[in-house]
Amino acid sequence: MALNIIVGTQWGDEGKGRVVDLLAAEADYVARYNGGDNAGHTVTVGDQTFKLHLIPSGVIHPHTIGIIGNGLVVNPKVLLEEIEITRASGVEITPERLRISHAAHVITPAYLALDKAREQSRGDEKIGTTLRGIGPAYNHKAARSGLRMETMLSLEDFAEAVAAQIEGVNEVLINLYETEPLDTLEIAKEYVGYAQELAPYIENVSSLLTEALRSGENVLAEGAQGTLLDIDHGTYPYVTSSNPTAAGALVGLGLGVGHVGRVIGVTKAFQTRVGEGPFPTEVFGETAQQLRGTGDKPWDEFGTTTGRPRRVGWLDAVLLRYAVQINGITELTITKLDVLSGLDTLYICTGYQADGETHHDLPLGPTDLDYEPEYEELPGWEADEADIMGTRKWGGLPQAAQAYIQRIEELAGTPIRLISVGPEREQVIEIE
Ligand code: IMP
User: Fold this and answer.
1) What whole-number distance in Å separates Cα of residue 154 and Cα of residue 150?
2) Strand runs (DSSP E) across 1-80, as ranges?
3) Contact (Cβ atoms closer than 8 angstroms) between residue 300 and residue 383
4) Ligand 1 atom nearest residue 40's Cα
5) Which residues participate in catalysis according to the annotation?
6) Could you tell me the distance, in angstroms and rounded to a whole number, from the CA of residue 399 to the centre of ligand 1?
7) Is 223 in the pocket of ligand 1 (CB under 6 A)?
8) 253: CA distance to ligand 1 center in Å?
9) What is the pTM of this model?
10) How far is the centre of ligand 1, averaged over its atoms, from the C-alpha of 347 (Å)?
């Protein structure tokens, strides 16, 4: 019936995977629309934890069909490995259950080598990328010299195109970055093998999904990364190279604007970031340790893709309001409320101070965030005051937790419909 879009409101890692998993119960198609294997979506079902990078996390529900949209850049090696791992966990992934857009772009080792060389050459100015070749792949796409999945349908053409690309990038690696060239023939041979395996998955997913929507089926679009990493609307240049914002779902799946139903913004109860770039509400020391966790649990704040410890901080309501604006968010989900249990005082950034004045909005967007945050203090709740992780009802939350959520809702100007209080599928509170 409608296209519902799930979008991260922060710098990614908001816990979108588990929200997708919940909403996928009512979807016929679950579709990734941006990014590549820089993303990492963790979903816990019973004693199983799935860490997915390219396959849409909603495919864990056996009734859904997964879609990889034209907005993605796909590393075929990573995708095939992920298909194997997911199958081994008991989730059936076949060409009937996973469709890949003919217009998605292909990541080759040339892009991985370029990503690494560029980061090294930036020195102190580095972005802190995931080194998955994402930037160079979108770079070539925009320069109209990329490789699309559809080329895999003719093995001879594909082998030639891969070889030509590696040759071209080798020139840059040798002459500009003074690094070792890649083995063209070896890679072309390897990639022909991937093309043979992936060819049955390739389709025009724009037509497939449009037809599905017209016949009354539901499509759930899964954003990767988050609003503040958007190439156009994020903390440029410390961003990724795609459009994680809601409008990216339309371009990245080839769908018309009129199909959009709900736009669900996912916000962590605090703020995190991996990689470089501004972070006005960042905290360090003991509070940071509590927010981050130790890394023992799969949902602690360590990168799913790179394992890097995430930077952590207080919730920034100025940036949240901005995300609501840019995405046209119709409702919010707050994740990881349980992590705040036991902190005496909670802080929400409600404005930025500059030149003796307080700003509640961002005149030029989030590019320049070199401000002193202005905080509102709210009381915390004792770790054992109520079993937050065991609570399934709004009324079961401690008063202070209810007040915290209500204040976020007021500041964002958008209803909060769902709160997650633990990593398990059922650890959520739905608000009527
Ligand atoms: P790239 O997407 O690998 O080029 O990295 C660009 C920036 O986006 C870096 O700061 C990465 O840490 C960040 N980034 C990319 N993907 C994710 C993600 O899925 N979660 C959080 N940060 C990400």
Assistant:
1) 8
2) 3-8, 29-32, 41-45, 48-52, 65-68, 73-74
3) no
4) 19
5) 13, 41
6) 36
7) no
8) 21
9) 0.96
10) 26
Domains defined along the chain, listed by start: 3-90+205-430 (3.90.170.10), 105-200 (1.10.300.10)
Would the CB of 267 count as within 6 Å of ligand 1?
Answer: no
The pick from 16, 140, 235, 274 for probing ligand 1's pocket by mutation, whose C-beta has the most ligand atoms within 8 angstroms, reads 274
pLDDT at 224: 97
Cβ(37) to ligand 1 under 6 A? no
User: What's the confidence (pLDDT) of residue 1?
Assistant: 59
The answer to whether residue 384 scores a pLDDT higher than 80 is no
- Residue 429 token pair: 């509170």
Using the mean position of ligand 1's atoms as its centre, give its distance from the Cα of residue 238 in Å. Answer: 9
The pLDDT value recorded for residue 240 is: 97
Point out which residues pair with 271 in neighbouring strands. 313
What's the whole-number mean pLDDT along residues 75-85?
97
Instruction: Report, as an integer, the average pLDDT of 31-53.
Output: 90
Three-state SS sequence of 353-402: EECCEEECCCCCHHHCCCCEEEEEEEECCCCCCCCHHHCCCHHHCCHHHH
- pLDDT, tens only, 352-362: 998 888 988 88
